[in-house]
Model the fold of this input.
Amino acid sequence: MLTIAALIPARYASTRLPSKLVQDLGGKSVIQHTYLSTLNTGVFDEVWVVTDHQEIKGQIELLGGKVFISKKDHQSGSDRIAEAMESIEADLIVNVQGDEPFQDKQSLMDLVSVFDDPKVDVASLKSRISAKAAENPNAVKVVTDLRGDALLFSRSMIPFNREDNAEVSYWKHIGVYAYRRHVLREFTGLPKSELESIEMLEQLRLLENGYRIRMVDTVHQAVAIDTSEDLEKARRMMG
Done:
């Protein structure tokens, strides 16, 4: 039986919405909602928030949650949770985005279930989107092979509908990742790759180095808090 830990990277600084993780969302902060919704799925043996800031640490400890204080100079959330992983016992590490306060139990169950296949080392989520939505470079698209493993991620519209008369399915990448622990350690030890640098998508480092990423379908539309508009939308969802 695999043991599973959710690690939630929670960097305090943010560009488009300053200190977004500690913003109020229906009486609790964004990061508190993310922690609680992750915990309440019941999917994980352990849930940890991995942060560089005492205010976030205090908010999670108010809920009785577990916190790991990381270095402040990490390049990415993956690097941040890789540091914390070395202090946590688990076979699978799931990277849950700190700015996504509404986690979905079924999606996370489906994600970790693919590790029953010993050939799966990394998995992530995808959801079907319209052609119009696929035009947006902020929506990262993914195409897969017949096994469901990712062939390519891009901010561009992939696949390209050359004849413009075919029925094309477009899939948006949902940035929740699950790793076997040795793969996360290996991944974060690799240098930044060429495609990763061009597209600014760190998952391309895995593909360029020969790792397979099993993509799992979900109908859940994740809500990420990146802007003040996103925060207002989430507040309306809370009622």
Remarks:
- The chain is about 30% helix and 25% strand.
- The first strand starts at residue 4 and ends at 10.
- The chain has a mean pLDDT of 95.
- The chain has two domains: 1-100, 105-174+181-221.
